[in-house]
Write a structure and sequence with these properties.
The chain has 279 residues and is an alpha/beta fold. It is 35% helix and 19% strand. α7 runs parallel beside α8.
């Protein structure tokens, strides 16, 4: 019988997907990435520790466990590539095929190799549909025209950044780009942008690329995002509607309200930015 493998990085998303997959009648297993510090919690009996740089071993484990579909979820810091030397021969060969070391290049090469073994990646949305939100405003306070302008400008810039496969987040204030995301990650980008805005209430914009491949690297926000924003007094978070994963949406929205951080989802119809949504 074929099975689902969840390649699990840090955070709650792999655990949420595990619960949803079990409810759907799947018999999933975690490939828990050691470098990420992922904690399988109550699913230890379904967890197989792996190193992300030992690709050949992961391929063997897929065959041994009858895995024919893989779901990639959770955070794995890209700086692993800068500080670890635990590559196996398969990983070295894959890295040699890459035209660059950007995320999508790696996923494309890995997908080609897995397809030869009759293993496919599935959409990250498959078991996380409840974490995707339609366009609109989810916090109570209506955005000012100045903030709306910054949101629209920032989301356009964030999408262009994503299309370069560099990062997904920009920090904006008064239509000035204060920080853009690269290998350091979202939290460090927010901190840098907030400090440069002199804690005047900058806008954080996070976007997928146009025609994003939803099997890989969908943008994600969680409570830690809000905590980082609050630390440097960024006052508005804008994400791409139905394309950005919001970890535990109800709790997230309530916490944003508590911190007095505006939260909006931006879709194709930009007029809906200030339309109040309930979750």
């Amino acid at each position: 019988m074929s099975r689902l493998g969840i390649v699990a990085g840090a955070g709650e998303l792999p655990l949420i997907a595990m619960r949803e997959a079990l409810s759907a009648g799947e018999d999933p297993v975690f490939f828990s990435i050691n470098e990420s510090g992922f904690d399988p919690k109550t699913y230890e009996d379904r967890s197989i520790p792996v190193y992300v740089t030992k690709v050949g071993e992961i391929f063997k484990l897929c065959k041994k466990n009858n895995i024919d579909r893989l779901l990639l979820l959770g955070k794995v810091s890209k700086d692993i590539l800068l500080k670890t030397y635990r590559y196996d021969l398969k990983a070295i060969r894959l890295l040699a095929k890459m035209i660059n070391r950007n995320d999508y290049s790696f996923f494309q090469i890995l997908e080609e190799e897995l397809r030869k073994e009759s293993i496919e990646f599935i959409s990250q949305k498959t078991y996380l549909k409840s974490l995707l939100l339609p366009a609109g405003r989810y916090t109570n306070k209506k955005l000012t025209n100045h903030t709306v302008d910054d949101v629209l400008f920032g989301m356009d810039m964030a999408q262009k950044l994503a299309e370069l496969d560099l990062g997904q987040t920009v920090v904006v204030y008064d239509k000035m780009i204060l920080a853009v995301e690269a290998i350091e990650g979202t939290d460090e980008t927010i901190k840098r942008g907030g400090v440069l805005s002199r804690k005047k209430g900058a806008v954080v914009c996070k976007s997928s690329k146009r025609d994003q491949d939803d099997r890989f690297d969908l943008p994600t926000v969680g409570l830690h995002t809000l905590n980082t924003m609050n630390e440097v007094k960024c006052k508005t978070l804008a994400i791409r509607s139905n394309e950005t994963i919001v970890v535990n949406p109800k709790e997230f929205i309530q916490y944003a309200e508590k911190l007095k951080i505006n939260f909006v989802c931006v879709g194709n119809d930009q007029q809906k930015i200030n339309d109040k949504q309930e979750k």
